[in-house]
Amino acid sequence: MSVKKEVTIYDLADELNISVATVSRALKDDPVVSKKTKKKIYELAEKRGYRTNYFARSLRKQVTNTIGFMIHELNSNFANSVLLGVEKVTTEAGYDLIIAHSSESYEKEVANAKNLFNKRVDGLIAALSFDTKNYDHFKWFSDKGVPVVFFDRVEQGNGNTVVVIDNYKCGYEATRHLIGQGCRHIAHVSSNLARNVYADRYRGYRDALRDAGLPFDENLVLIDNLSENAGIVSAKKILEMNPVPDGVFITNDFVAAAFIKTLKEHNVGVPGDIAVVGFNNDAIGHLIEPSLTTVNYPGIEMGEVAARALINHLKGTSDIKQIDTVIINSGLIIRQSSLKRTEL
Predict the structure, then answer these.
(1) 284 and 313 part of one domain
(2) How far is CA 318 from CA 126, 157, 167, 313, in A?
């Protein structure tokens, strides 16, 4: 099957016996061209299947009206909610999105960055993968004056603009809540402590124990990925401890759900035997039994704030170089999985 030749403005001009300049101006809705002429050009363009060559136009203007969005995963409620927030703001501002995800791989993150750079995105919104080793691939953008806004998993300092929640405070409050429920032997299930989000939550957990006069035990800190299997393995490890912890702060709701399910399969009561607090406020927290106490992570708001900061910079109404860190409000949502003291 043969492919039809792309219709150009020269073809339209030739068929209507008018100048190419007139067709070009009409397609840009230039008021210089009369409404009658515009109507004829629009009707023929639609009939012939004419498509505007946005790529060529972007090369002339040195802008593409596209924003790159780099995320470490796309299979979580949090990631999807951030994307919703970004898409809402970028669409309203007339920008298209190019989405790339690293699948938690540094090598893939570098390849994604190179691809977006070569596609000449006007700006980039990015969250880092688990094992990002350095940040040279983001220097390509800064060297060309392309603004970058980091969110969630970020590299703070070095003049970067980042949008985050106060992970330290949230980790502290989650642990203090367990202490307030009478827990005295609290474990922490987390992930790669090289990433800011998990390192800060870990520090909050550790400091809450210290401030309550409880000992910190490194053996109670379990580091794994954020998979269902991680929740299962962590639960089995904790049940083998002596004494068995009476409270657990888990840095991800999906892992927490798998953790609770495994405890129940071993006839361990939640929260009676072990109180559990998760993180993210994912939908799964409402679906499991008991419902999951968690930390709210306002992903839509985070996406909107990151996108708005970037677009305002592109439009010249603000300068992200003058913005260091934007902290989104977050807090604990108390449900049944942590309530040992039901009268509280």
Answers:
(1) no
(2) 20, 20, 27, 5
- pTM of model > 0.70: yes
Give the domain extent around 32. Answer: 1-48
Structural domains in the chain (count): 3
Distance CA 128, CA 103 (A): 10
How does pLDDT run across 298-338, given as a tens digit for each residue? 999 999 999 999 999 998 888 787 778 899 999 999 999 99
CATH number at 84 reads 3.40.50.2300
Asked if 157 and 72 sit in the same domain, the reply is: yes
d(CA 329, CA 297): 9
Are 149 and 163 in contact by the 8 Å Cβ rule? The answer is yes
> How many CA atoms, within 13 angstroms, populate the side-chain half-sphere of residue 282?
19
- Residue 211 CA to residue 61 CA, distance in Å, equals 58
Question: Which tens digits make up the pLDDT trace of 250-265?
Answer: 999 999 999 999 999 9
Q: What is the largest CA-CA distance in the chain?
A: 89
Among the residues of the chain, which ranges form H helices? 9-16, 20-27, 35-48, 54-61, 77-92, 106-118, 136-143, 167-180, 196-211, 228-239, 253-265, 284-287, 299-314
